[in-house]
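ARCHIVE ENTRY
Sequence with per-residue tokens
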Amino acid sequence: MGLSYRCATVSADAAAPMRRVEDKIRRLCTDLTVAKDDTEVRAILTELQDALHEYIERLRSRLPNYPIIIERRARNEIPENSR
């Protein structure tokens, strides 16, 4: 059985925006743990939701380039009447 695969490389420039969004998510989670009142919590949660949405959309846009192993199975050519 043979396997074929495709690989994609991500440049440092392309990965930098993802790291910035990840850093922002971490910071917002930390801010959320020390928030003093409900108004502050709501504001942080709104910003966190937006950052998570942005992160997910960036992941979705990168998915087509993700290294995927594709298994190729060759069908045996068995005549229908011999089964």
In short: The chain has one domain: 2-73. The CA atoms of residues 1 and 73 lie 6 Å apart. The chain is about 60% helix and 10% strand.
